[in-house]
Amino acid sequence: AQSVTQLGSHVSVSEGALVLLRCNYSSSVPPYLFWYVQYPNQGLQLLLKYTSAATLVKGINGFEAEFKKSETSFHLTKPSAHMSDAAEYFCAVSYSGNTGKLIFGQGTTLQVKP
Amino acid sequence: DVKVTQSSRYLVKRTGEKVFLECVQDMDHENMFWYRQDPGLGLRLIYFSYDVKMKEKGDIPEGYSVSREKKERFSLILESASTNQTSMYLCASSFRDRDHQPQHFGDGTRLSIL
User: Fold this and answer.
1) Chain B residues close to A35, C-beta within 8 Å
2) Inter-chain contact B97–A99, Cβ cutoff 8 Å?
3) pLDDT in tens, B47-63
4) Residues of chain A with C-beta less than 8 angstroms from the C-beta of B9
5) Which of A42, A99, A104 sits opposite B43 (nearest CB)?
6) Are B112 and B12 in contact (CB under 8 A)?
7) Residues with Cβ < 8 Å from A35, sequence gap 6 or more?
């Protein structure tokens, strides 16, 4: 069965430091990939998506992610963390013919320390 | 602006009650989804609908049913609420397989079953 793994349920960085949130998928077929962010007591908001146009995808709020087929990875990065980035982040995948259903990772909570 | 609206942000019910969670979207999306979100488990799909009166079971349908009588509205029903259904419930919608458009989420309903 296809799955998504987010390494690290909690990540803590200092304000201004690099943010790196890891996501790996399990499939030999390249999927469509998404990163979502969830702020406290809110729903999920799309950060960015990969749909095979370019391997480096830029999203909102200064985030970007790089698709690496050889590593089956889609890690999320931001050069300089801001306090407002503290939230839970979800990686998700979908596949052609899957009628729009997404498979979500377990989520990573990002803490930003002053 | 796209909008997915869930009828309640917080809800408290008693065991054995029949509980209705309502979701409305204004984007003319074909697909609608119900998820539950629990710490450490990410989002798990309960039910999915790809058209009016059509439904498909997700990963954890037991104890739930759904109704989709109109394209914009998707209801989740807990037939006889139990304490293990205490959770955050998220509704989402998307276009049906149009270049893998992302899902749009409501703000969630935090349901407590006492």
Assistant:
1) none
2) yes
3) 999 999 999 999 999 99
4) 41
5) A104
6) yes
7) A21, A23, A46, A47, A48, A49, A59, A63, A65, A74, A76, A89, A90, A91, A92
